[in-house]
Amino acid sequence: MRKHLSLPALALVCCCFWGIQAEVYTSIGQMTDLIYTEKELVQSLKEYIQAEESKLAAVKSWANKLDVLTLASTADPEVYLAHPVNAYKLMKRLNTEWSELESLVLQDPSDGFISNMTVHRQYFPDEEDEKGAAKALMRLQDTYKLDSESFSKGKLPGVHHNAILTVDDCYDMGKTAYNEADYYHAVLWMQQALRQMDAGEEHVVSKADVLDYLSYSVYQMGDLPRAIELTRRLVAIDSSHQRAGGNLRYFEKLLSKQLKELNQEVQEPATEEPIQLGTYKRPKDYLPEREIYEGLCRGEGVKMTSARRSRLYCRYHDGNRNPRLLLQPMKEEDEWDSPHIVRYLNALSDSEIEKIKELAKPRLARATVRDPKTGVLTTANYRVSKSAWLEGEEDPVIERVNQRIEDITGLTTQTAELLQIANYGVGGQYEPHFDFSRRPQDIMVDGNRLATFLNYMSDVEAGGATVFPDFGAAIYPKKGTAVFWYNLFRSGEGDYRTRHAACPVLVGCKWGELDGEFNSNSQAPSNLNINQLIGVSHLTCFFDYFLVGAPCMYLSHRLQSNLHRNVTSGSFHIKKHKKED
């Protein structure tokens, strides 16, 4: 009988927007609903405009008709009223028809539109969503080293159409950063607003307001000469500005003091030059491996050497002769050698993916993390996504996916966590973290996460890689595939090399499915055969893996079957000529 281990963490990943009230920005899946909501509101607005135009046309018709009548009646009122019909119609108009006109004027065609707005308003994003989305753009800007001008003009990798930011959009971005005391990003976006303003772009915000925020933010970044120059520009535009004069005197006095302390002569500030992405250094934050992590997200610092590449293979995987995989084995590709990370092709079909999304979408809620101090689940800025949990009994598709994971890994999902569906929002990410628990009290109660099985349910145009800062690996989403690795050593100790992160999605929608579980015992059986632990059959036939330049070439199933019959032990490697990179 085949032995099973509890599988600590299995996952399906998805990146899109969905949301109801607050934190809508954390899920693109839910945000797609807002697109259709907005379309419906536009149609309602058009109907309101048409109703207003119809009402105005009717009122104009009344006015034109009455204008003709009054011209005739006022020419000689007595002669006009001498005719009994005119006298009757005057009584009728003033008693009845003017009342009808009054009712027409008092009609409010906006009722339908306002009613529609009221119905949909409960699903609208709030101020926190707008702020969260703005901060997400800044996160993307930092991670992928994009200047504000490229962002403003919509020049992003992987895009098929451009989306521009206006002067007022850039100003609002800068103001959001300023209100968070994030002067680094406030400078970048206020500078971009000023640049577009100076180029003649239309705007609502005044240049004085932009210079006010920009000059003070530059001062906060420690650049007094530039702060003085910007403040002088502000005074030149608005000499009566409430703060500009006082700020200018303070900046000049402070600069003079600093120069005297350095025994330097006071000099006039140099003419202002545009502030670029690298003009100021981004302040350090709580994440020690920030630079390594973001570099890997950009594809920099990936430690894929020729020697390591030569140790990576493709293979057919039948799950230790699992009956369900004998006729149609999985295509397995090595992604990394140590720790061993593999990718399975065709792990999910398109129809399965759509069904899982359909089941998950109504349940998506902001993803949480466990506070390392209190152990309480809470939301965090370093995990921006929404998730839903699905049980196998809910639908045959979920049960089938769970069974497939068992067949592939040789682990049981009976004691696993529920199938977790993750959908990432604007700049969705999950910064470096461990899947296994490091809290002894949690492990004593629930066990620990032995392994991670991550299904990618969408392709991503740009960004969204899964990266491992410790050993410099980057694994990119590919729809329908799954990656698998162990989080624990056979001793039950955590493998700290598996600290990993989900990079922000720059362009696209990333969906993922994670089936996670806590093992009832954190110790993996010590007498377990290494091939059983890894879940790879020792009869599987290997051949060289072409990592660069061409996809893996797989043997025909007939050849594979023959090799299985002929080989009784060990691994049989089939050497192929390597394709040039």
UniProtKB/TrEMBL annotation:
Cofactor(s) needed, names only, are: L-ascorbate
- Offer an example of a GO molecular function term for this protein: procollagen-proline 4-dioxygenase activity
Q: Which UniProt keywords apply?
A: Dioxygenase, Endoplasmic reticulum, Glycoprotein, Iron, Metal-binding, Oxidoreductase, Signal, TPR repeat, Vitamin C
Q: Where is the Fe2OG dioxygenase domain?
A: 415-520
SMART domains, A to Z:
P4Hc
Q: Which PANTHER family match?
A: PROLYL 4-HYDROXYLASE ALPHA SUBUNIT, PROLYL 4-HYDROXYLASE SUBUNIT ALPHA-2
Purpose of the protein: Catalyzes the post-translational formation of 4-hydroxyproline in -Xaa-Pro-Gly- sequences in collagens and other proteins.
Q: What is this protein called?
A: procollagen-proline 4-dioxygenase
Protein's organism: Oncorhynchus kisutch (Coho salmon)
